[in-house]
Amino acid sequence: MTRRLVLLAAFVCYTSAAALFQVPEAETLHKLAETPSKDVPSDAAALGYAVDFSVSASTTTLNCLKSGGYSVVFTRAYNPSGSGSFDRNSATTIKNANTVGLGVEAYITPQPKSKTKTGAQQFVEVYQGLTSSGIVIRSAWIQVTSPANWYTNSTNVNFLLSMINQARQYGVAVGIYTSYSDWYTITSNYQGLPSDILVWYYNVYASGVTGESAPTYTDFRPFGTWKVPTVKQFAQVESVCQTTLNRNVYTPGIPALAESEVQKNKAPVVGGFIRQ
Ligand SMILES: *[C@@H]1O[C@H](CO)[C@@H](O)[C@H](O)[C@H]1NC(C)=O
């Protein structure tokens, strides 16, 4: 699985390298035109740009994002409402992203307080929802934010391990979307995760363009098992391509090989676009 991810991730770099310097143009799509545009710091040249949102995206929207220099879209595959359910919007976004040649990753917003479903069961719903839509799932990111949505004891870690173990049984690579502070609060800085699990962290000062942090990893502090991040969300609740979304930078993989890996798959693919 790891090798396949590396191969596939290459596709992202292939597309992002060319598109990277167009990213600032996406800023012009923001409604807050009076906001001074940020210079892209020098070390941002090594990173790709991505967005995340939970609504379903049309090919028109995804083509717009691609033209704006974004290489990957993260789509929500699990809706935590009630006791949680597969989010069908993700199937639409994944298929459309494959159609327009945009990398696509799935994130899971779990329902850790579900009375009826374990972490494993929630992952099964994601897996079955995607595969029954004809989608091959290679990786998924589990959202561990908003402490109010979690318990305040070791149940949280058990829930996470249950979900992660189920994913691994399916051969699906796992990443965690969290922050230093959320991970401390929700898991008491759990350090027992397998070392191949990647971290996607966020840091913003407020919603919107004026609340962005730098699109770099310079503010990353090690926590949990992570010494380096793989994705950073630096902007939340912005409008790009008429879609309300969050913006991210990520570490791209190696170009050409991944592209061929994508072409080998006849079915739409989600995941494996971020370096493993
Ligand atoms: C954690 O807290 C919840 C809610 O108070 C409780 O139902 C559960 O039994 C607790 N779990 C452990 C392991 O203490």
Automatic annotation (TrEMBL):
GO-annotated biological processes: cell wall macromolecule catabolic process; innate immune response; peptidoglycan catabolic process; signal transduction
Keyword Signal carried by entry: yes
GO molecular function, one term: lysozyme activity
Highest taxon listed in the record's lineage: Eukaryota
InterPro entries referenced in this protein's UniProt entry, alphabetically: GH, GH25_Enzymes, Glyco_hydro_25
Signal sequence bounds: 1-17
Entry keyword set: Signal
Protein family (similarity comment): Belongs to the glycosyl hydrolase 25 family.
Protein name: Lysozyme
Protein source organism: Caenorhabditis auriculariae
